[in-house]
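Q: Fold this one first, please.
A: Sequence and structure below.
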Amino acid sequence: MARNGYRGLVWISGSPDEAIKRASEIWQQGSWRAPCWVAADPPPECDLAPWMPPSKARSYLGAEHDMIVFDTVTAGGDFDPNAFGALSGTLCAGGLLLLLTPVDWARSQADNQQYSRYLSRLRRRLEADGSVAHWRAGASPEVPACPRVKAARLAPVEDPDCLTADQAGAVSRLVRQKRRRPLVLTADRGRGKTAALGIACARLLASGEPQILVTAPRPSAVSALFERLAFHCPEGRRQGGDFFDARGGRVTFVAPDELSAMAERGEVGGSGSRLLVDEAAAIPAGLLCQWLEAFPRIAFATTVHGYEGSGRGFALRFRERLQRLSPDWHEFHLAAPIRWAMGDPLERLVSDLLLLDAEPPSSAPSAPLQETCWKRSVLAAEEETLREIFGLLVQAHYRTTPGDLQRLLDEPGLRISTLDAAGQALGVVVQGDEGGFPSALAERVARGERRPPGHLLAQSLAAHAGSRDALEARIRRVQRIAVHPGRRREGVGRWLLESALAEARRDGIDLLGASFGAEPGLIAFWQAQGFRAVRLGLSRETSTGEHALMVVKPTSAKGEALAGALTTGFQHLLPALLAFELNQLDPAVAVTLLAEGPRPALEAKDRCDIGDVAFGYRDPALARPALQNLLRQAAIDGCRDPALVWLVAWAFQGRDIRWMATNLKVPGRRGVMEQLRKAVARLIEGQIAQG
């Protein structure tokens, strides 16, 4: 295996004592580099140093191992697919991944009598794979012959600092990048993408570049970048999120939120600036577009088929915006792996088990659509359809993980429906039921004494909107909805939601709802289907980088009353939140949400105050209430004047003159006031023209 550049999986099934004993024999007899034992609790047979719980797997990204024991047997068969996917990518050529499972690996940890469709599928896929060595309870190990197919020859590498020609190509493109020609680097995991960013940083500093900004969803994502940078700049020093070279150049890591705020204030970006974005698929497209405008030299790097499964959605969704904003962008793909050879059986097996390489159907037939409501026991056995459905979810959502496949097959009460054409799934909606608590339990949940799992919408509305009724009502939440790229803008998503609404009414559900990252395009889609906002998170979600927005639509008389109370309460609270806790919210989102509120009246005094601002010299701050009413009216009327967004940022969110001058690209307060008065004049004249 080492000679071929391959890695392998040894599946040990048996009782906890038997499985651990066999794994320990392999562990102790080899001279393994950096062995790692992954289990919920430290095993008795190995030192504590190489043990880690599955929850810490993410922190080991970038490490290298020759031996990993992934122990599910001591946890009753409980399997963490995210940890398994992440750690399998750290295994080097010639290494072994030992998977320890119970004999009957189709029973969940929570209840040994509860059948797991997900684990049953994993077992079938393992049994069918000819590269797996299986050591069953009470039997000798079944060891397959090492594949005789020779590893694919890699192109010669002329760059001595790089391990593959692909990595050298990426470094060359990064160093030679021209202004306003964004570069997109894509790769499957293990291709040295992040290391290429580090090598490029070292060369740019050596050429005299004074500062390079780096961002990623978390600092650990770019650890390989700073490691390569330090290796190639041995005279440099690392200090917190900065690396300084001997010439005074600097590479600085900035978290996405902070970078966005700095760009809004004009503190970063501008002529000559450079930004490298790693794992771009896990960052909201709105931020990427903001940076695209601020930095003349910018590169986006992302994993396409990684354990987070998010790169495909990035490639499809962000590419459209990139083409519109910067048509001269370039793309480079790194195909050659670094830690193992092309054709490695473990990479293929892990991709199959976790559906890391799941794709939607390659084509989107224009045949008539037919709805299918899936029994999950059937879906778990329909591998091709399961792969199509999961592929749709991956390309539609930035942060679909292997754990989402587990939830798709095993989470209680989940409902999965597809719209199919010519036997192919072209649209999917995933729903789950919530609420319906008796009043006594609802009161305890509202007070925080109980927190039943799986009731996100109901519990959030009780805790943050103070609605006990939301806990007693029957709520159905749309967890995911996705449409094939080839059938978008044809009403497929609307069809799925209309069907879900009809089904909810038949089932006696009170509210159909959803929770998603607040982004103007997504909000507009849900608004068009009659859903209204009832809650907005006060901080950004780590999974999306956006504020979580909850929307509902009533499906019963009881739901009508509840939805009315929730939307009224939210709109009443919204201006105060925008002024304080949500003063950094995307103003375009604020405009979209204000448009759902009640239409305010413009009294004669309001019109006089507005006229004094628009056509006189009155300080706009002294007419803020009247201007707020004008802006709400404009939002409700669907005003498309681009000034509405920055006017809302000023009037409702208190954005200062410096922020407005930067965004309007005008010099100082005088330029801002001139633009503000002109914009207010246009809006009030539009209101007069309408009636």
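Q: Good. Now the second chain.
A: Here it is, same layout.
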Amino acid sequence: MHPRALRLGASVAAALVVAAGVLTTSPASAAVGDDDPSGAASPNGLVVNEVESNGDDTDWVELRNTSSAAIDLSGYAFLDDDSSHEAYVLPAGSTIAAGGYFVIDQVSATAPGFDFGLGGADTARVYDPAGDLVLRYSWTAHAAVTYGRCPDGTGALVDTTASTKGAANDCSSPVRINEVESDGGTPGDWVELTNVGTTTVDLGGYVFRDSDDTHAYTIPNGTTVAPGGFTVLDEQDFGFGLGKADSARVFDPRGDVVDSYTWTAHAATTYGRNPDGTGAFAETSVPTKGAANRFAGVVTAEAWPGGPDERVLDDEDTFTGDLSGIDWTASGSGPTSGSAAGQLWAVQNGDGLLYHLVSDGEGGWAPSNAAGTELHYADGSGTPDAEGVTVTSDDPGAVYVSTERNNDVSSTSRPAVLRFATTDGSQSTLDATDEWNLAADFPGLGANAGLEGVTWVPDSWLTAHGFADEHTGAAYTPATYTGHGDGLFFVGVEGTASVYAYALMSDGAFQRVATIATPFSVVADVQFDPTLDALWVVCDDACSGRTALYEVADGAFAATNVYEAPSNADRTLANEGFAISGVCTGGSRATFYADDNDTDGFSLRTGTYPCDSSTPGDGGTPGDGGTPGDGGTPGDGGTPGDGGTPGDGGTPGDGGTPGDGGTTPTPTPGGGSTPAPGDTAPGGSTPGTGTSPSGAPVAPSESSLTEANRGTLTAPATARPGETITIAVGTRYAGQQVHVWMFSTPTLLGTATVAADGTVTATIPADAPAGEHRIVVTAEDGTVLGWTTITIDPVTGALAFTGAEGLGVGAVAAFLLLAAGAGVLVLRRRRGIPASE
């Protein structure tokens, strides 16, 4: 991945983008540098028309010829913001027709192109054959889709609705039909709309029709749909029913069709897009009116169960950018400072540095080797593009690093795992003792698309969980791979967005043992978590910071949970590294994030994930997450029989006379477990009292909201539809699952795990009516934990996707001055950082 140093112009422009977001709700314009050519096009009519910097098979820049004559592009050169990269020179015969398109693409197995990537903060520069800069376009964050000119060829570059490589840009409305109920829903038929764009859309004046043109419903002014949000049109409002053979059509205020869907029979449930907003329609597993669609066998993204924040851990400018991989392990050898918190290993990809970090005991972390350890290949040469790092319990005197290439030969792919002999990173330089170059397994893999993350999983764990070997087609048998050590290495590959398990033999040979597909466009890191008996797969800003948990089922790793980023986290951070502590303290484990872009001068952040400190074995495998038993002696702290397998939290058989406990409880990530029907629930409550027979939470009754339980939680006094709020329930409930409701008509806002700080987050429905409501939090057994009032403000002033109007010249000028000043402050506060890959 490629971080980019921000220059003054980019900083100023970034502030202008923020200004646009604050003062208007127009599409997010990418920032431009202060030395851009003054015109939108070069004198010959050539323009940068669309940019893809992440999330596609390759990065690319599309040019358009706005003139009436063809343009010869032979000898033109393309470069990003890093002048140390070798510019890509367009071959002879490269031409762009009048009104046509030309794509400058990244190199691939089948086509030539530039051999560097485009980052979240980067620049596209185009030079003519004389070496003069003719086009320049800069941005400070990846587009949600692409940056493209709207109108095509002539307008400003904004976040487009769809990627249109080599074709006219998609500047259409981002409103989409997402789910349809045509057979007697609640309170009748309904159609759910979503927004695949990046700014809120005012639906006022949009028209909804079924297959009959005379059936038309004009959506009232003030009705909005937030980015990624949902707005429902009900039969009681549009006034006609939907048939078993019918259509749903949405038109914009100009009368143009925005989206439509036609069906020939009622769905057994509903028809919905998979995935939301962009996928094809299929029958859902259950109606999800106003919420994300659900399908059988598909894991739907859910809220992060830990704390809502990611806070900075490192001092400003501790790192120089490019911090990419990170791994947590218990303190065993080396410096003892911060040993209770464990230790961190991290790698920096551009200059191939290894860092050993320790806690200062006051909430911060810093390298014990401040300058970092320079990594080289076995012969002492080269600069490994260090992307991931891990340690293993069978080789405690070593650190393993995953790489994409040798940065000294940056155009050649070298996806490898390297071993370095060190216990504390105190050496100034280290040469690899071993290398496993996996290039033969990935023919055609791009030089910037290799091994992003690496982790190690013990053989004992894999065999105990019934892991299957895809190479042999049988149960995994460690003895099959002589000299591979006591575990397998799992690597995340950026270019394939997949994870692979390898046996790495002592003679340099290797064998792929498993292939694991992911729901992400990029795999940025992978981490084994022995506490959860699961594998974390991590995406960076290309997926807005989502993570996924994988568990072994029927011999293979399968996704069980996909999590959004913590609610208050910046989802544009290039968090390429992820690690999680094996120590459970106060109901939570620390999570760690490595920001490859060194945003605002900081590269290391932390959050929390809930845990049960009474569970034995928190801390994981020795050398890979801690010593077994860290986090509590078996039987310590837990109520006998409180949801674990016999012997997990109590003496076998504790919890009742044999036979009175029902079936074995099912473990759930985050600590504790869900009692099966008939089991005694934690705290002595009877399972089922807070859920319906189908398992859905049951809303508390009006009479259960009393003055006695009012005010025992806090929430904002006001909120707007679509806004995410933080509710303080109390630290005594940390780690417990709760249900969050909004009255008057009881509406379930979600089920969440209370964070270590006693808070949960919930999102106000986008169609929540204005006025006073009540926020209610209930326990799993239905007990009301507390409630408070909240006023939902009416949504006013939201603008349509076509952009904002009426921003006064004086306001623009004033904010330009403010933004310029902010840019200067940013430049002065941070030392210069050389751009690198």
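Q: Anything worth noting on the second one?
A: The longest helix spans residues 809-829.
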